[in-house]
Amino acid sequence: MPVARYWATPEGVLAGADAVSEDFDELLTRYAWGEAWARPGLDRRTRSCVTLTALVAGGHLDDLAAQTRAALRGARGAGRGWGRGRGMELTKKSHACVRLEKDGRTLVIDPGVFSEEDAAVGADAILVTHEHPDHFAEDRLRAGLEANPAAEIWTLESVARQLSAAFPGRVHTVGHGDTFSAAGFDVQVHGELHAVIHPDLPRITNIGFLVDGSVFHPGDALTVPDHPIDTLLVPVMAPWNKVAEVIEYVREVKPQRAIDIHDALLTDLARPIYDTHIGNLGGADHIRLAADDSTRV
Question: What CATH number was assigned to the domain covering residues 86-296?
Answer without folding.
Answer: 3.60.15.10
